[in-house]
Amino acid sequence: MAGRLSTVGLRITHAIPVILGVVVVSFLLTRALPGDPAVYFAGAAADEQSIAEIRTALGLDKPLMEQFLIYAGDVITGNLGNSLSTGQPVLQDLANRLPASLELTLTALLLSCGIAIPLGVLAATRPGSAVDHLCRVLVTAGVSLPTFFTGVVLIYVFYYLLGIAPSPLGRLDFIYIEPDRVTGFYLIDAAIAGDWETWTGALKQLVLPATTLALFTLAPLARMTRAAMLSALSSDYIRTARAAGLTEDKVLFTYAFRNALLPVITTLGMVFSFTLGANVLVEKVFAWPGIGSYAVEALVVSDYAAVQGFVLAMALLFVALNLVIDLTYTLIDPRIGFETK
Amino acid sequence: MSLLSIKDLKVSFKTRRGDVDAVRGVSLEVAKGEVLGIVGESGSGKSVTSYALMRLLESNGRITGGALTYGGIDLRTVRESTMRDLRGREISMIFQNPRAALNPIRKVGHQIEDVLRRHAKATRSNARSEAIKALEAVRIRDAEARYNAYPFELSGGMCQRIVIALALACDPKLLIADEPTTGLDITTQKAVMDLIAELITERGMSAMVITHDLGLAAQYCGRIAVMKDGEVVEEGDAERLFAAPRHAYTRKLVDATPRAGASVRSLLPVDLRSPAPVLTPSEAPLLDVRDLVKTYQGKSGPVHAVKGISFTVKKGQSVGLVGESGCGKSTTSSILVRLADPTSGEILFNGEDLAKTPAKAFARDTRRSRIQMVFQDATDSFNPRHTARHSIGEPLARLTGLSGTHRRARIEELADLVGLPRPLLDRFPHQLSGGQKARVGIARAIAVDPDFLILDEPTAALDVSIQAIVLNLLVDLRARLGISYLFVSHDLHVVRLLCDHVIVMRDGEIVEEGPADKLMEMPAHPYTQELLAAAPAPPVLAEPASSAAE
Fold this sequence. Notes:
The structure holds two protein chains of two kinds. The two termini of chain A are 13 Å apart. Chain A has helices spanning 2-32, 37-42, 48-58, 64-76, 90-125, 130-144, 147-161, 186-193, 196-233, 236-243, 248-278, 280-285, 291-300, 304-332. Chain A is mainly alpha-helical. Chain B has a domain at 317-338 and 367-526: P-loop containing nucleotide triphosphate hydrolases (Rossmann fold, 3-Layer(aba) Sandwich). The two termini of chain B are 17 Å apart. In chain B, α14 packs parallel to α16 (434-446) and α15 (404-418) crosses α16. Classes of the chains: A mainly alpha, B alpha/beta. Chains A and B meet through α10 and α11 of A and α2, α4 and α7 of B.
């Protein structure tokens, strides 16, 4: 156990240089963006002098090194600056929008794991069967259909034609009141407040975007589960287990599946970090107030503080995610942790 | 009445090139308390026979004919659920490669518990203690601690004990051992086989021991069936089979099995036994190793792989380097072939110290072509995308600058020299058999006319009849080309056939060295004696087979 704790400590210390690097790179990248925020915010009627005033007010006339030191100092104290376009502190914007993205992504991943993993297992145990072919079709469809397309199709069918889905406008229909903020996840907050009407409303809003995203993330997960299960099932220890007369369930789940989980978890981690940053298209289609669309809007207007804040938040999230994956690995696989000794 | 009866068993596999008949009408009987050995080379269908009777064939395999009866139960028609009850409780199996045969992420104790509870030999409350008893039954010391171990924390021999414990946990009446000791060290092999024999006698079980090693089968089995191409060619008492083999194939196998008192030519079929050429080594030293040390920086302190060894290889001499895994013989050979650097010590080759040139720079050194190596795994040591011609031509192109028709001619000359038919030169490694790959490996090593050749277990993965041919090829080549050999092996009998001088290593040190004959006849060091005693001895030359079934 002590070995595992020190492994965790080691992983965390490994993350520190990564985060420092992200701070530097995000700062430099935003400065390298084309466009001058001072010109943008001065408006169309501004003259040279007012632009210069705004530039001084934003601190953009100072040398790059000095700007960076000011920025780094602010980051340490937890001040990510104010967004130029929303006028709010970036930290507050992120705190509002990150839970929206997380709620969407997590629900989508739960949904896709719930389908992809059983599907992959079934396909692996019956290669060449109908389930196997279904798995193949779903995987191909999932990869080849872009999310904005599936999103629009789902809206067209379930909202426009059938009328069973609510209008795709954000996290909650205007007839409901936002639940008291505890976690920022509407489903959880509504459940805590015991407001089941709002809970249902939030769920209804969530179903279509989550399904869109799930269809997309289904493919890599199902593929990896199938491949990992196939290789686990053909290994020697499965033969030993069968020769010992263990039941098929025991062989399949305790012996094969637990071994097959390792690559599946790696894929899950990759898919998760990828979707979190890349679901901007889904957020746009469903008017979801997440951080993906926030970052894109900020980028368009050279909103330095917001972009930097976004990149930093994502980096921290990635580091945390990788840590969680590593820990899950050590829980499943006893061989890990000893190797790092 | 026999416990198990196999009648006219036929098994075929569906492959992309049509159906392949792996077993073609095999009939065998195993009586209560009997130990039957099934001996054959790769592809003889010996393992498939056992998988068929356990009904554990791969999904593309099918029993196409015959009858399988175990204690009055028809194993071919019985329901799958009944079959699962039989597996592990009535018939158990142990496998080769014990580490892979255990679930890598489950505690070994839990794996044994799974079997015990499946067959209702233990309940939730006493499973742990029963599992520990099963571990103690296979003479595992400190079984309580081992219960919590994972397979990767245990040695190969220990893993095989766990696999045996698992197989015997529910007191089966028939044990099938499929190459139970392949890949284990020779002393471990003896310990494991002795344990199996002891447990079989103790519990009055019947057993089927499947092996490629005729010597091993003769030592531990009462009766032996020899298989070839999916058929049983001969069956009989172990001693009779050795003393007077009736079938030509059995004769060939008996001959090809390295044993005390055999010469390298006597491994071959009678009609091929031309007198072996003799190369008398000169007194001049070719290679002089002085106080060679290799220390690795391990995670938990330094690892002393080689602890200051010194020896000499004379011009034209063939020296055998023998030891078990972890003794430092592979480290030594990779240092001598200059792929690794020693921590300290001198490697005097024709009087020049090779250790002064770092391994990285040695590839461009003019002396690179003087020392070459034949690698252990013939498959993995070839680029899978290069033809045999390409592989043999590579050192010629890099070290001799031979090109065009000259190189072509030299490659064909080499192919003739090692007995590789020229049309095979354009094949890829996966299109060649094990023996052919070994020939390509040898041709590649001698392509640049080296003075010194390091052979790292070149026949370890080959069937005995192929091994016999390759060993003879090596003897002929040495006499013809006057090359000195360092033959690295774990098998003293093989080393004796090929070497004038033998060095025995253990834990990075040389424990004994001397002329091959003297060392084999009168080993001075207890470890050499132990190694010699552990090698399976065919019955004609040693004490009569100790039949474990008695």
